[in-house]
Amino acid sequence: MPPSSLDTTSAPLVRDTGDVRWRIAADWEQAVLDAQGLRLDEWLADGRAQVVKRNSNRTIYRIDLPAQGLFLKHYRGDWLERLREWFRSSSARREWNKTA
């Protein structure tokens, strides 16, 4: 069960599922990830996730979990974004760092 508030002060766990690497707060791992990765398909199927915003660069979802709601941002990087990541961190990493 996830905590009532997200603790971003501790270092995130790193988990690899297929070709995706996740950095996630330890308290949220069980609630958000399963063996295949993010539980987004499950949440969309049972109505717990709704699209809030969608554009060519990212999709933002609102997810209502039993303990707390959260927002999930799915970034879709093109080849130029991947090239930029050689020189700076990804958009997702920069947002994580801003929360600390």
3D architecture notes:
By secondary structure, this protein is of the alpha+beta class. Helices cover 25% and strands 34% of the residues. It has four helices and seven strands. The protein has helices at 29-32, 40-45, 79-84, 91-99, and strands spanning 13-17, 20-24, 33-34, 37-38, 49-54, 58-64, 69-75. It has a three-stranded antiparallel β-sheet with strand order 5-6-7. Strands 1-2 form a two-stranded antiparallel sheet. The longest helix has 9 residues, at 91-99. It is globular and about 40 Å long. It starts with 12 loop residues before the first strand and ends with a helix.
Outline the fold blueprint.
Blueprint: E1 13-17, E2 20-24, H1 29-32, E3 33-34, E4 37-38, H2 40-45, E5 49-54, E6 58-64, E7 69-75, H3 79-84, H4 91-99
Antiparallel strand pairs: 1-2, 3-4, 5-6, 6-7
Q: What's the Cα radius of gyration?
A: 14 Å
Give a count of the beta strands, DSSP E runs of length 2 or more: 7
Distance between the termini: 22 Å
Given the helix and strand composition, which structural class is it?
A: alpha+beta
Q: What composes the largest sheet? A: 3 strands, antiparallel
**pLDDT < 50 stretches:** none
Fraction of helical residues: 25-40%
> Major sheet: order of its strands?
5-6-7
What percentage of the residues does DSSP assign to strands (E)?
25-35%
Mean pLDDT over all positions = 79
Q: What global shape is seen?
A: globular
